[in-house]
Amino acid sequence: MSATWHVDASVLESYAAGRSTQVGGASVEAHLMECRECSSVLRELMPTEPLDRAWRAIRAHVEEPRAGVVERLLAALGLSSDSARLLAAVPAFRGAWLLGVFTVLVFASAAAVFADDTGLTLFLVIAPLIPVAGVAASFGGDADPAHELVTVTPYSSVRLLLLRTAGVLMTSAPITMLLGLALPGPAWLAVAWLTPAAAGIALTLAVSPHVDTTATAAVFGVVWSCAVLSAYHLGDPVEVVEPLMQLVLAAVALAALAVVVLRSPSLDLLGRNQ
Asked: What is the DSSP string of 226-240?
């Protein structure tokens, strides 16, 4: 039912300009809910610039969110804005991941220093599996906060694969190598874990279009852990990263990488079959 009276023009002007008292403003608002004529007059009196400015700010926030610290750093290093945004969305750049990696590696390194072979075994088990787990999470559906973005991105699958894998290595490799320098024994042990890590990453990516990345990484983790523990029980855990094993693991990594390259069209399914 329409109202039988109307708000005075001067009162509406004061309300539109924000000069109404609390009681007067509440009265006008109650009337406007029932009176279409006064509502129409008010629309003509309301300034449009503040509303337009607010909508522009909302659209800018939703459509062009402010770049985070990691994204700005990557852009400063020369990456394009779209590549920096995709790379910054990798789970390995999240604070929880970085803190977890650092904590686990510090514990493993300390154990290697104070517990001799037992601690070294723990480090050799953990170090190669961290980047493998990071890659699995980067293409693991629900584990990836940017999964929908990955699914619809117009990038080639190989470029996307390289970007996100590089993101994982950028966060895990430097920390692991620095802490690895504290290990007892030869200095090359600080980088010896890189070859099994490369093999695990390559294998995970090679089968990812057809098998869940988390399952693949888990299987590799079990196999690698069993190998390290077997070497430990036989007397020397370092045997799993001795030169001969390095060659074997490098061959596995290269073979899996060749599969990734040769079957690159099937990588269009990467992250989409989760």
From this structure: HHHHHHHHHT-GGGG
User: For the chain, give me the number of helices (H) and strands (E)?
Assistant: 14, 0
Give the pLDDT confidence of 41-69 residue by residue, as tens digits. 888 887 777 767 777 776 666 556 566 66
For residue 202, what are its two tokens?
């390559």
Helix axes 194-207, 213-234, angle to 10 degrees: 150
DSSP designation for 4: S
List Cβ neighbours of 176 (8 Å cut-off, separation of 6 or more).
105, 127, 130, 193
| Number of CB atoms found within 10 A of residue 144's CB | 22
Q: How many CB atoms lie within 10 A of CB 157?
A: 20
The CA distances from residue 197 to 47, 129, 174, 247, 273, in Å, are 62, 6, 13, 13, 24
Each residue of 126-140: pLDDT tens digit?
A: 888 888 888 887 765
Which tokens sit at 137?
Answer: 């999470």
What is the Cβ-side half-sphere exposure of residue 90, based on CA atoms within 13 angstroms?
29
**Owner of token pair 């030169």:** 243
Query: Rg for the chain (alpha carbons), in Å?
Result: 29
d(CA 264, CA 274): 18
User: To 5 degrees, how large is the angle CA 264–CA 129–CA 77?
Assistant: 65
Q: Give 92's DSSP letter.
A: G
- Element housing 71 (H / E): helix 69-76
Q: What is the pTM of this model?
A: 0.61
Q: Which amino acid is at 192?
A: A
Between the CA of residue 246 and those of 61, 106, 186, 193, 195, what are the distances in Å? 49, 25, 15, 9, 6
Contact 87, 170 (CB under 8 A): no
Domain range annotation of the chain: 9-63, 80-269
